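Forum: Protein Structure Q&A
Topic: Joint prediction for protein chains with partners

I've read a bunch of threads here and the consensus seems to be that you should model interacting components together rather than docking separate models afterwards. I'd like to see that in practice. Below is the full input, 974 residues plus whatever partners are listed. Could one of the regulars post the assembled result?
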Amino acid sequence: MSVQEAKSERLESLPSKENFSEWYHEVIQQAEIMDIRYPVKGLYVWYPFGFRLRQLVYGKLREIMDRDHNEVYFPALIPETELEKEGEHIKGFENEVYWVTHGGLTPLDVKLALRPTSETAIYPMFKLWVRSHADLPLKVYQIVNTFRYETKHTRALIRLREITSFKEAHTVHATFEEAEKQVRTAIGYYKEFYDFLAIPYLIIRRPEWDKFPGAAYTVAFDTVMPDGRTMQIGTVHHLANNFARTFDITYETANGEHEFVHQTCYGISERCIAALISIHGDDLGLVLPFEASPVQIVIIPVLYKGREGEVLELCKRILGRVKGFGYRVILDDSDERPGAKYYKWELKGAAMRMEVGPREVAENTVVVSFRDERKKFKISMKELTKEKIEEWAAEMKERMRRAALNRMREKIRYFDSVTEVKKWAGRGVALVHLCSSTECGDTLEEEVGGSILGRFEEKPGWIDADVDGGCIVCGGKGYLNAIARTY
Amino acid sequence: MSVQEAKSERLESLPSKENFSEWYHEVIQQAEIMDIRYPVKGLYVWYPFGFRLRQLVYGKLREIMDRDHNEVYFPALIPETELEKEGEHIKGFENEVYWVTHGGLTPLDVKLALRPTSETAIYPMFKLWVRSHADLPLKVYQIVNTFRYETKHTRALIRLREITSFKEAHTVHATFEEAEKQVRTAIGYYKEFYDFLAIPYLIIRRPEWDKFPGAAYTVAFDTVMPDGRTMQIGTVHHLANNFARTFDITYETANGEHEFVHQTCYGISERCIAALISIHGDDLGLVLPFEASPVQIVIIPVLYKGREGEVLELCKRILGRVKGFGYRVILDDSDERPGAKYYKWELKGAAMRMEVGPREVAENTVVVSFRDERKKFKISMKELTKEKIEEWAAEMKERMRRAALNRMREKIRYFDSVTEVKKWAGRGVALVHLCSSTECGDTLEEEVGGSILGRFEEKPGWIDADVDGGCIVCGGKGYLNAIARTY
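Posted by a regular:
Agreed with the consensus. Here's the joint model:
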């Protein structure tokens, strides 16, 4: 693995993660995930190191999607005439669409939208692709750049004007029920993906007023960020036959009748990487699960005058062995002092560190530490096997998963009085019972200054509160809802 | 491997490849490379099958680039202020840039260009990334969508408004000479890539008036299409310090002085796939080298009543064995007749076909044929080894390479009279001796109706004509030049 990197800045120490917003801003730049200095607001550059992380994370997503979907690519430019066909849908996007109006100096006959999402690019083609029940189900996905004219505060990977890596899947089914089954399947895929990253999540059905424009309903994955705000990191939409009616997508049944299809779509953006960085990172920088680390193992020689040769020789033996296991490993034999190397590789989240000095050479041992624990221990060279490393990697992920889940649980509380929710506001997620009326919802949101995320699609076992209960506002029949400030 | 495909159209037979333009149009659609029915001129949809081909071809390109470059991603939107900094450069692109002028209903303060290529997005950041000689060389690449407002006749993969997969590399060096060395290296990479695809090429230095806007010089890879027109399928540019001066990219030398860097950039677009399809295809459809075939081997059962079970059993044994070798293989056990299956998989360029009927079951044999030759032969199951298949694949590629090179050579002729060149016009490449004056160049181009491609950067051994000779127009000191109609 090559370590050519853009050596742009001397390293400065990170702000404490308690100042989450500053910490995030700095870690993105200093760990060389993205360069935030591109001369347009809301647009960022993927550094080589960040790009490798992106490849690893999206590689996993591709692996999961490839089981059951075909990858495709639809154009980035959508004619105004198609984008505006679905009334609800365009209302949801019209204020944030970028419009291409000129080619060279020539005004275009039909304005072109830079895709904010691809329903209106894809579904006119689905009309051509789907003829009969034998063509169903149809399941495709693409990983593409999408665009939003964000006027709010922008932030790398979280709120951007070019989302460089939006994974969007689109499926077509004969019936509402089959589409609903696909919604369950998609939720399963997203669980697997976030479990792989050891990122805890809540699976919540959005309220009517907050569903995807044009959908029958929306199920979202939310995680809780270190500052207590939630971040939506994935959505699954049941589209019923709403888009099918607009785009006239029908199929011939076995009986020769023509029916509208039913559809789903579901997406994950590079917010998955924002979550990975934010949920696990610490004051020293990135903490990444072994499988997602661009540098899984870093070997650092601790050199003493006159003993350099033998130390480097053992380092190279370790390098050769670990490479042979198929891991991404670096021997950092640069001229920097060991302390500077520790600092650098902690910042970049190398999952495991192996150190070798003259003592290790004499004993034929190696000093090992894990990025999450930072405790050192020593093992003999004989013990350094692939099985051992896999065991460490699994233990590390389990520790990271538990720690992240515990931190999330601390930020989620049940309340039965609006006054208490107000006190909690800005610190995390409030669980409350709430009836279905928009009035009670509006009242609560205004009083406490957060957004209603919705009801649990799958209530986690560690949440004790009952699903049913009296509405916190009117006292009528209510259901367990989550409310929080959001990204 | 899943074979879910968009079954959009009943297959119709292809036009003969002699009508190249029609053949190309139809094969792209019928083989399900791209759907050409997207409702905007010059924009096309990658079908699942086409996308798999794209992944295989670009996978090879990535593998080559990854040896020596880091992959990155720069934004798709370039502010007008940056795009227009380099005077030559913007003149070369101003008529074909798409402009984003509005976000929602709001006019933007600074217009944003959809990248036609990324020099002006990347180089302002290189200014920040490069500080000292220790940061050099810097070598990055990205594979991105780029945009051109094409007003001419558009054609899938060849002349498009969204080039979905432009591989562009950008390198930074201390000196002109080091950049020149990188030009040689890049030419070497591109040779390797096109050799992998068995696509023959000419390596030609473009004349001054046709070089990349802002470059010191441009070396291009051209191939000759079946209709005799050439297609540029790759370019390598030496930028000298032209862009460095514009974007103020300097480095500190070992002596503490500040010098402008020297740069190169080089790119390959999805024209590489257009070439792959056009150069090797035949009247029946795609012909693809084994390593680039989405379906490398198709197994077709020839069923007779009462013998279906045993035939399918042998087919599955073959499937299991060949899958075990790691190949992309499909057992087509659909209800269609064998003839229809042959037709389908010939169209899609499955490199090898294996057929099994009751006779093969009795003999424990399998009938094999290759897509390029279409001669059938029989081997025993024992002979069906990984080594055998690799040998076949290598032989097939060598046959394809030779056949394609021979076809190209037939379309390249040397001439020493303008009258003869005129007769040849539209049939292929004319080689002529030409002096360096633009007058003689203009005269020749006007007389014969083609474009001067330039002088050979590397003259192939099979071209007999001398490098030096009297100018075909004025009789003065001339050099061997190629002239042709171009895509």
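The CA atoms of residues 147 and 162 of chain A lie 5 Å apart.
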